[in-house]
Amino acid sequence: MRIPRPFPDSNAGRFPRSAAFLSALAACSVLAVGCSGGEELSDVSVQLSTSSVDATPFPSDRFTVSDTTQYTARRIALPLPDCSVRVSDCADLSLINTLDGFNTQPRISIPFTGDIDPATITTDTVYLLQVGDAQTGAARGQRVGINQATWDSATKTIFVESDQLLAEHARYLLVVTDGIRDLQGRRLSRGAWHNAATGKASGPDGTAYATALAEAMNVVPPGENLIAASLFTTRSSTIELTRIQQAVQASTPAAAVDFMIGTQAGAPVRALFDRASLASIRLQRQTTGLPTFAASTLSLADLDLRGAVVGQVAYGRYQAQRYLNTDYYIPGVATLEGVPQPFSTHDVVVQVFLPTGPRPAGGWPVMIFGHGFGGSMNNGAWNVASSLAAKGIATVAINGMGHGGGPLGTLEVTNAAGRTVVVPAGGRSEDVNGDGTFGGTEGASAKPPYLSMIGSRDGIRQTVADLFHLVRQIRAGVDVDGDGSADLDARRIYYAGQSWGGIYGGSFVALEPAIQASVLNVAGGSLFETTRLGGFRIASRGTDLAARTPSLINLPPAPGVAPPNNLRFEESIPLRNQPVLVNNVPGATAIAQMFDRGEWVGQSGNNVSYAPLLRKQPLPGVRVRPVILQNAKGDQQSPNPTSTAILRAGDLADRQTFYQYDLVYAQDASLPKDPHGFLTAIGGANTRNFAIAAQDQLATFFASQGSTVVDPDGAGPLFETPIDLPLPETLNYIP
Description:
Layout: E1 2-3, H1 21-27, E2 64-66, E3 74-76, H2 87-96, E4 107-111, E5 126-133, E6 143-144, E7 146-152, E8 157-162, E9 170-177, H3 193-197, H4 206-216, E10 226-233, H5 239-249, E11 262-264, E12 267-269, E13 272-274, E14 278-288, E15 292-297, E16 310-322, E17 344-355, E18 364-370, H6 380-389, E19 394-398, E20 406-415, E21 420-424, H7 451-454, H8 457-476, E22 488-498, H9 500-511, E23 515-521, H10 527-533, H11 537-547, E24 580-583, H12 588-602, H13 607-614, E25 627-632, H14 640-650, E26 656-659, H15 661-667, H16 688-703, E27 719-720
Parallel strand pairs: 7-24, 18-19, 18-22, 22-23, 23-25, 25-26
Antiparallel strand pairs: 1-24, 2-3, 4-8, 5-6, 5-9, 7-8, 9-10, 11-12, 13-16, 14-15, 14-20, 16-17, 17-19, 20-21, 26-27
Helix pairs in contact: 2-12, 5-8, 8-9, 9-13, 10-11, 13-14
């Protein structure tokens, strides 16, 4: 059931301190008459508890402790449930209780003592005020609205999300006003919040919390009638990866990229090949530890998409620091001064495509390409390299963490004369579960019991760290042919990433100052939202819910469908800008809470967290660099609301190119219904031209140092450059 009441846009502004506010609030009666002109008040009020997360507004710094080693000077301290029964919840909270603050896109809960009119929950009656940065106090008074509201009938609780990404390591005041009504239309009373508002709250670190809450209320505008409030501090999301980048940038590579990694007749040879001389490249992907391999032949024709423009193909190897522990996650550090420490080093194979013609004096401009989830350096980069080479730009790529098959895989490179050179394929899949096989993405995600919370957060961050090392190598000089000169121009490094490559690319380009321009294709965020709303809903989220102890699956299996694809669940979370959703589905609230916690833990690997750094709030010493975001209407892997989350967080709507795929599909129903792979879909006659058009935008952008943005179809209607507002906040799937 939905209550027909849309959410207005959130407001932003600053409000003066109100010295008389608390005394005026204390003077208001909590019985039948309040500060609202003497009208009769409801006996319904907001619940208050100093010990139960479910019986008080949340998030709240009541559930933190002082920790001076953290940037925020706080650390989460949520109470644990019965760990013999709620095993998975305890594992989740063991991670959450190490964080220095709450989610920057929080799921806010406000429990009431009785029924309310859900339609009165709006951005005018419930909102957030920024109290300031935890260290500097900056941005005090900024107002943030709410969105995605759900009324849970059983628990008398309203759940909302902040209307925008909150600033990291900042303090916010949740404001609940008497504009909320009960079912008889009466204003709510303050109930137990009378004493709380006057500074007499207690609980963990209670005296300090009460003092901080009272001071924070000075940002509330005069004349606003509160019935409840909660003060909370957001976590530091980007600090750890920022410090990894700084450490890599300050380092000197132990050795240059080694291109003498080929083997011919048992002897080492340089893995550099003229495209014109190649007859075939055969991939032997390692699939088991025996070892066994799966053979496939790479499409050399892809390199000729724009003619004979790719001159040479090369493979090199460099070392990067490994930050993942044996459970495949990166342990957190104290955020005030802590720096993640590597556990070891590992080899990374880099694939290079050089254009034809004489090398420029400073080397070839170079684009780093990031592949999608489940892909490898042997597909996406191959599909775009020709378009870049046609503009005189080299392409390089690596396998992301957990991708490319096992480490013993090889590439058999055969020339027209029949001579074969064997090159390491650079597979980075690892046998995480010990079953003797290398899954398609095994090693990209944390081991259980950390899998459901961390997921591929740190597979992403490890891949980004590997790219930091690659950039450091390019800056030091990459000599592909061994003539003593750099073949790649360290002054002109660009990045393009597709899907997962666009996701980890968001944090990479935000933090790496050597990247001069970037294109993020079909990226979405957070990972919990992309999988919850998209094509991995069952394979990722459904299986996670089923594997928990106790299971959170709350709907019967789909009849006639084989497991695990028969899993079904309902979380009762509406899309943005929709009316309040009334939830009557048992178990939905627990699922929504689990998703919120996963997003909370995952913010340090969420590209949405880094979007403000691209332009709105770049890091000190990092200039704003040009960026394009390419997305498609009805994308089923990175659903439209997850792409707009990046645009909203970074104020990047004017940098979006939007592929109106519904118009294309209307002209040719033989096309796939999911446009997710449009950038690299060069294999089909009915998709190739659209792929080339999108690639031309990318290549022209880089060739101009990011100064020229062309519309892929000119004045045509198929690509909006930039996107026409409002942003698409529905799924837009083709049925």
